Amino acid sequence: MKQRAPLTLAAVTAALAALTGVAALTAPATDGKAADAKAATAARMPVERSLLVCPGPSSSDIAETTYTAFTPGGAAGGGKGSARLLGATAEAKPVLEPKEPGKPFGATASGADAPALTGSADGALAPGWTAQLTTKVSVGRSRGVLGVGCTAPGTDFWFPAVSTAKGREDYVHLTNPDDAAAIVDIKLFGPDGPAKPDAGTSDGIRVDPKSTKTVLLSTLVPGAQLADATAHVTTRAGRVGASVQVGEEGVGADWLPPAADPAGSLVLPGIPADATSVRLDVFVPGGEDADLKVRLAAPGGSISPAGNEQLHVKAGMTAAVDLKDLTRGEPGSLLLTPSDPKKSAPVVAALRVVRGSGAKQEIGFIPATGPVGARATVADNRPEENTTLLALTAPGADAKVKVTASPGTGGGEPASQEVTVKAGTTQTLSLAPAGGKGSYALTVETLSGGPVHAARTLSLPHEGIPMFTVQAFSDDHSTVSVPKAAQDLSVLSR
Predict the structure, then answer these.
(1) What Å distances lie between residue 114 and 60, 64, 72, 248, CA to CA?
(2) Which residue among 131, 193, 311, 354 is least crowded, i.e. fewest CB within 10 A of its CB?
């Protein structure tokens, strides 16, 4: 009988990394030479499995929802793969099953019965797999265009810019993709610090396996009118996908995605040029106050909004500032940096943005987001003229990116363009596939310089209402670091 070679720790670690799509576990480098040695003995390999969770789209009977899933073409690794999005219930049924990289696949659903979804992709469809749901509600309290990207399940989420005030209905959507129950805690922080919840309502919320649950934030703090607040969603057992659906009387509805993790400097990309109201919410989760410099990165450079150049935020409290019509006819992105670089306190932040006026207003949200990294994609864009606008921001240094529009779900030829973004500016771009029909994906790749932050605005006006939604691009983390010495996994099959 052929004798098996012994498995090394490095080989086992590499095998786990390649099979599960998580980074290899290595000891921290203790000096520069160790770091160089680590880089020399590691390589980037494509993930082999990705998992996404999508919230239930709407409670309206007249809602029309489009689901779009996409994996960028030319993904490292090649070969075959499979992907599917399923209803997030014990009786899960396929909603969308993409077949190949480089081509978006779409599906539609009507009414309030459209389910929350969970899904996975493996093989060639896993690296960079993304999915998006976009819902249009033409009338009623929840009218508007509501867009959100499906996310990987997690255990810790921040939602600045939530509210329990009269006229607002903010629902936290919690979806559990796993086979065991998840236990969730929700804490609210207003302008005076932690809000006092009704007994037992915000701690230990059970989300059953393969199910979804919605929580109306105002029920957690009865009687508390928090116009500006921050929600912190954590799990003490299991993991969930989490997003907040906001409905506001007179200005419609949209999704508020999780904000980027607490950091001393933040970028909130893609404020529309015609925004009539911009409101910033900032929360300090740590024990030290934050003093921030506020700037707008516009096409011609960075400017400080008059009267709001600085913002002081007390530890454990949510601060809000009305920036009004900040952009004044030019698209831009908000930059938050420490007033004193030597005294940096981590913060989380989000923007509430309104377009239109009077009875023709529409609301959207822009949370702080991380850079696109090597590559990032937003799946659902529309080829009609003036519906999709991409905003690219380089907060600290010049950068060059490549933007690619995939074919549409109904055909067309891909298009690409290289864009140079000057430091401290926001550049905008409209790009669609040639002859494209149906929704298409936009992919942004960093070629040099950076970092770059990106968001796209999807505008679908209805009867004079400038309905819109903004989705940020997030690094797709399509590769993981694997030690070179451990890449030969043939020992596992001997």
Answers:
(1) 10, 9, 27, 22
(2) 193
